From TrEMBL:
GO MF term list: transferase activity
Protein known as: Guanyltransferase
Protein species of origin: Streptomyces paromomycinus (Streptomyces rimosus subsp. paromomycinus)
Coiled-coil region(s): none
Keyword terms, alphabetized: Transferase
Record domain Nucleotidyl transferase: where: 11-237
One Pfam assignment: NTP_transferase
Keyword flag Transferase: yes
Keyword Transferase in record: yes
UniProt-listed InterPro entries: Mannose-1P_guanyltransferase (IPR050486), NTP_transferase_dom (IPR005835), Nucleotide-diphossugar_trans (IPR029044)
Length: 241
């Protein structure tokens, strides 16, 4: 089916976090440069390949911690799309950092994708863009239902234990760290601070913020700790998603 509007062809990757909970892996590289064992590529390499496969031709990477390591890797790697890097000279917060990076997008009058630099996932961004467009949203965030890291206990109304469920899916959806933004959204971001405490609540009140549940079976994981690396390697196995 042909979309009645152009799909986004530009994106921002937020790659400036300290990654302190991933030490020692982040002692000599930024978080997006960490490799999940068995994948053969750092997280950001996977993200760039995914974005390119979804029709993105230009990406802006917002760097911070050990920015030069990431910039060196980008300059020495054959990339599937054009990449520009920006470095914050002072902390701007998540919203301010997003706005600063968006200023370097080549087509400011067109919609754009954004993703956190520590996310390993793959699903149809075009389907998400369709969802965003159909709802007339200024911003759409992908929603994931992660598995609870503990076993759950199922009981009846009398308190009898019925079953034990290992790592069940959470009953709640969470922000998956992948977004579609309208061109106008950039102007709604704060110059400093957190857009999730300012811009997003405002858009939600005005019904201009949409939530796109990840398709059934889509793989998603945020890489925050060494345990995440181990579990992601086990989950991915030979899937290579």
């Amino acid at each position: 089916m042909t979309a009645p509007y152009p799909y986004p062809t530009q994106a921002v990757i937020l790659a400036g976090g300290q990654g302190s909970r991933l030490r020692p892996y982040t002692d000599d590289r930024p978080k997006p440069m960490v490799e999940i064992p068995g994948t053969g590529t750092p997280i950001i390499g996977h993200q760039l390949a995914w974005l390119a496969a979804e029709g993105v031709t230009d990406a802006v990477v917002s760097c911070g911690h050990l920015a030069e390591v990431l910039q060196d890797w980008l300059s020495q790697t054959q990339l599937p799309l054009r990449v520009t890097t920006v470095v914050e000279t002072e902390p701007l917060g998540r919203g301010g950092g997003l706005k600063y990076a968006a200023a370097s997008l080549p087509r400011p009058d067109e919609p754009w994708y954004a993703t956190n630099g520590d996310i390993w996932t793959r699903f149809s961004l075009r389907e998400m863009a369709d969802f965003h467009h159909e709802r007339g949203a200024d911003a759409t965030l992908a929603l994931a239902r992660p598995r609870i890291p503990w076993g759950a206990v199922e009981t009846d109304e009398f308190g009898h234990v019925l079953d034990f469920i290992e790592s069940p899916p959470s009953p709640y959806l969470i922000n998956a760290g992948v977004y579609v933004f309208s061109a106008a959204f950039t102007g709604l971001l704060p110059a400093r601070g957190d857009h999730e405490r300012t811009t997003f609540p405002r858009l939600a009140r005005e019904r201009r913020l949409a939530g796109f549940p990840l398709p059934h079976g889509a793989y998603w994981r945020a890489i925050d700790t060494a345990k995440d690396l181990t579990e992601a390697a086990k989950e991915l196995g030979d899937q290579r998603v």
